[in-house]
Description:
Strand content: 5-15%
Shape: globular
Helix content: 25-40%
Oligomer: single chain
Order of helices and strands: HEHEHEHEH
Number of helices: 5
Number of strands: 4
Amino acid sequence: MPHDVRPTITAQIARLAFEFNYWNPRRHEFPILLVCKEAHQYIPRESDLQHAATRRAVERIAKEGRKYGVGLCVVSQRPLELSETVLSQCSSYICMRITNPDDQAYVRRLMPEGEQDLTETLAALRRGEALVVGEAWRNGPDDLDIADIVQRWWRQQR
Length: 158
């Protein structure tokens, strides 16, 4: 998508993902995972007007999404440039090779206290290897009434 509309579209997608499951009575049986690739480009660490709506929507998912069955997968080659709020709320990390010392130090601070020493291996990881720390996702139902959820959303009835 064009660079100039990326923040607006991303903000809307994030907001819709959150609100869809907010109004979904079976939200815990139907988790949604929003995957944000190259996230440092539209969920930046630094606040600016262009990315304000995106940051607000994605940070809401990071802070409140779990209770409504909305998860977030943030993918970036530059974790230091990402929103601190988003990364601090992550419960799982999959880290590929990181050679930049500033990025390594930042990832180390984000890791759970007992697992921070594992980040010493980040610079030595080979192609296809990763450091995986945290929780896992569960399976959802096959029979979800999307039309009913949308009707509840429109009527604002949970």
